[in-house]
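Contributing new records

If you add data, match the layout below exactly. Sequence lines come first and carry their own label; structure lines follow with theirs. Keep one chain per record. Anything else will be rejected by the validation script.
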Amino acid sequence: MSPPFVPEVRDGRVYGRGVGDNKGQHLAQILALESLLACRGALPCTVKVLLEGEEEIGSPRMPGFVAANREQLVADLVITSDGPVDESGRPRILFGVRGVLSFELRARGANRDLHSGNWGGIAPNPLWTLVHLLASMKNERGEVTIDGFYDDVLSGSAAEQAALARLPVDVAGVRERLGIERLDEPVERGYHERLTAWPTFTINGLHGGYGGPGSKTVLPHEAVAKCDIRLVEAQRADDIFAKVRAHVERHAPGVEIVHQGAMDPSKTPIDSPFMEPIRRAIRAAQGMDPLLVPAMGGSLPEYVFTKTLGVPALTVPYANADEANHAPNENLEVERFFAGIRTGAAMLMYIGASAREGI
């Protein structure tokens, strides 16, 4: 283990905070531009570079910035490099991302913590308030039971379903690595379908009362649940938050709901005319065809391009699958960094050639 903000190369990998997510991938794109300019004196197509450093907190300023600068940002295609390649080592083209909605549920009881023997059964327990509320929001079959939650969930196209069927996965290996006996409900849902085609409701944390060693017969006076919802096309974060609020007001009107941030989902058709030149470019740079993935399980602010600007947006990851982003010893394989530079340059070359051919 090495200091997080002192990059260090060990065994063919660069170690440091953010090298995989996402400074190394940003730098690879910039070096691809510099390489083409150094070798050719000009770029094969017009390029606009947009860097923003707030994605980890939901990119709160991106919507306003993009809306205010539409003319300067007009483009035919947006390419982002973020996330890892497939666990098999094959490159990927991601045609969308899930959105995210984060919020807190806050329940309060008495004006201070109480003794459970003296006050249990007298004063309401805010932890039980949240437990009952959360149980009303998702059932044991894995279905979110908030009214209207699935109204805007769309079935994937035939091309998307075929692409999902081609994605490799070792479910038994995943279970073994995670130390779990089964996947979450519903058990019949496909592995990749779970990550790309369906929304999720996650309790990130449930806090209140005493959690230290031994016992403490306390009746807590407040409790907090931190939650997130991953959204799929064509759900909207503001609409889902309104539905969550309505559910809370109906089932636990004393509970406060606090909005913590959101990003809408984004989707570009998998049969986009840009798919083929990008596919050929990746093959030329890395020697193998990429996997086509309808959407990333995580979230990026791609909606500002696809929805605000009306521009197709693709993600082409450069990092290794075991990059350990957001964790100690985050790393980026040096060879993947150089492959990213080659891929960035190749994508510009093939896109430029396609434009000249009228594609």
